[in-house]
Specification:
2 copies of one chain form a homodimer.
Chain A: H1 22-29, H2 33-41, H3 48-61, H4 67-74, E1 79-84, H5 90-105, E2 109-114, H6 122-131, E3 136-138, H7 145-155, E4 158-161, E5 172-175, H8 177-190, E6 195-200, H9 206-218, E7 224-229, H10 234-246, E8 251-254, H11 257-269, E9 279-281, E10 298-300, H12 303-319, E11 327-329, E12 332-334
Parallel strand pairs in A: 1-2, 1-3, 3-4, 4-5, 5-11, 6-7, 6-8, 8-9
Antiparallel strand pairs in A: 10-12
Helix pairs in contact in A: 1-2, 1-3, 2-3, 5-12, 6-7, 8-9, 10-11
Chain B binds a DNA duplex (16 and 16 nucleotides) through helix 2 and helix 4.
Chain lengths: 345, 345
DNA sequence: TTGTAGGCGTTATCAC
DNA sequence: GTGATAACGCCTACAA
């Protein structure tokens, strides 16, 4: 049993542990609460000797304004929220990192909500998160357009990340997945590959649809396409890799880097050499894939920019100033060691 | 320029866009605000027909209680914070993920603060984060004992993660780094390695000290130890690997998995075969290292448990009930493919 | 059961 | 410049 919550011997005999509020400081400094408030915020001018008294009293009492009370009085919390579909996905790590950083520079804090891919709860979570703060960065790639649209008014101000929403009422940051796929195709076809596999992500995923559509419309003439249901995680790639050997493809396009990494691993276990026998391509360019063996050819999505760009738009929205235009990030093909000429056979 | 912030044609002609508060609902339902409050919270009994009127009014007006106002009135926010030294480190991803999940089950949200390894700001950040919510999970492995100790009263209730603090006033979850190192040594010595390198992490890192100390006290009799300053990131491992070839070691112990991964990658580039020519060991067992080539031998730290365990303690603290005892997690050696018998030479 | 009224800790608008 | 005083939106004794 812990005794940590027991009170030690009382040290302050007098004030019976009165919570240290602005009123207490005011009394101690013999001024009004208004004056204490002014000193703490430094906006208005107050007489130097009074200010000193206040500061000293605050110091001695260990006073600090209550953020909650300030939030209520000011009508703003100094917090923004970000909702992600799966905190476990490394993709979000960079976004969160940079978003926290950017927001922090303006003295805003970040609340993170994780819907855990639970589409039922997502709308409520978003609303709740939003209500707790001043703005929202929403990443909900699986939410139906219609639902998102009717949700929008209750989420504003917010910025939308990593998904399309035609006629979006909110600033939107997207990634041109189609362009990325086209780059990959050009690359692989140039290497002589004519029969490709696509390891599909979750079929609720908008970005998976975008990839798939581009692939399907391109397939047929120059190359054959085999679609394999897979998923979005390491383990999915790892376990799907066995199927690859049977279907006679020379190159694999994975839904994302995690999957590609799993494939790489499994192929190695199977003794299939990459890229000599099989080329593998990822998507996202999350940090560590340049260190895989061989380093993964992938499409680099500028994840690092997503955070700051989202922040600057949200910041503009909250101040009601002009918002920068939407941007659709053009991914960049990163050719590394996991792709090579198609085996002659 | 975006026209998103312009108001569309006013749709509600009557109530001049009055903010929808509890008072509005009360008027609409023709009851007192107290009654609305009671209905919304469902604690007290109110007459069914009144309750219905209230619910309907709330529904129509789109009313939802303000979390900020509730927080002020109730004296609790329903938020907990976690402070991490570097959100970019994958190690925290799992912790955050699970912590968010566990807290969410109790309807608590998570605020995340990232000190970005800035030791100056860290105390203020911790205090600020804590004040915004009901409790704190603190991960500050570089903060001096003394400072943390004097900070403690202002952070309470909080739980301490991933560091030691003798006589800690807060519940503490630590990892037995020494034991992990000892396991690694036993493993490597058993494989015949007699000359090892340690790639040191940041020298402000408490966990680095723990590892180092164990290594140093063990070294000398059975094996030689070469310490190489390195760091905590992929890139650090990658760039330090070149030095390994010159110092004639047969095995490397990396500060963490990231570093080990970087080493693996560089060794492969250099044509040095792992484990035939060099064994490599990591630390942490972050998710993807089982997929490296070869899969990384590492010490598995039960990161997944850190989040939930931290939460349950914080939860207990906040409710002022008995707190579970501290736990020092015993890491488990995961022997995979990156270690093997020392080369005969 | 329901309403009245006061409080949660700040900030902001007034007079002085 | 400074101090009352009224918000901010909600909750909860207490009284009816």
């Amino acid at each position: 049993m812990s005794n940590r919550s027991l009170n030690g011997p009382r040290e302050d005999p007098a004030p019976a542990n009165e919570p240290v509020t602005i009123g207490l400081v005011a009394r101690a400094a013999n001024v009004s609460r208004a004056t204490v408030s002014r000193v703490m915020n430094g906006n208005t001018k107050v007489a130097p000797h009074l200010a000193d008294r206040v500061r000293q009293a605050a110091q001695e009492l260990g006073y600090e304004p209550s953020p909650v009370a300030r939030s209520l009085a000011l009508g703003r919390t100094g917090i923004v929220a970000m909702l992600v579909p799966d905190l476990g996905n490394p993709m979000f790590q960079g976004i969160l990192h940079r978003l926290t950083e950017a927001a922090g520079d303006q003295n805003y804090r970040l609340l993170v909500a994780d819907s855990n891919e639970n589409l039922q709860e997502e709308p409520l979570l978003a609303i709740e998160a939003r209500r707790r703060c001043d703005g929202l960065v929403l990443c909900a790639p699986r939410m139906p357009d219609e639902q998102l649209r009717e949700l929008a008014p209750r989420l504003s101000p917010f910025v939308l990340i990593n998904r399309e929403l035609p006629e979006s009422p909110a600033p939107t940051l997207t990634i041109d997945f189609s362009a990325g796929i086209r780059d990959i195709l050009t690359h692989l076809l140039g290497l002589g590959h004519r029969r490709l596999a696509y390891l599909a992500g979750p079929d609720t995923s908008a970005s998976n649809h975008a990839r798939l559509e581009t692939l399907r419309t391109s397939a047929g003439k120059e190359f054959d396409l085999v679609e394999l249901p897979c998923g979005a995680a390491f383990a999915d790639g790892h376990s799907v890799a066995d199927q690859l050997v049977d279907i006679d493809v020379t190159a694999v396009i994975a839904y994302n880097d995690l999957v590609a990494f799993g494939v790489l691993s499994r192929l190695h276990e199977l003794g299939i050499s990459v890229p000599a026998q099989m080329s593998v391509v990822g998507f996202d360019d999350i940090e560590f894939v340049r260190y895989t063996t061989p380093p993964l050819t992938t499409v680099s999505v500028p994840l690092d920019q997503l955070g700051p760009q989202a922040w600057s738009r949200l910041w503009a929205l909250m101040r009601e100033v002009t918002v920068e235009p939407d941007v659709r990030f053009r991914p960049r093909l990163e050719v590394r060691g996991s792709t090579g000429p198609a085996p002659r056979d």
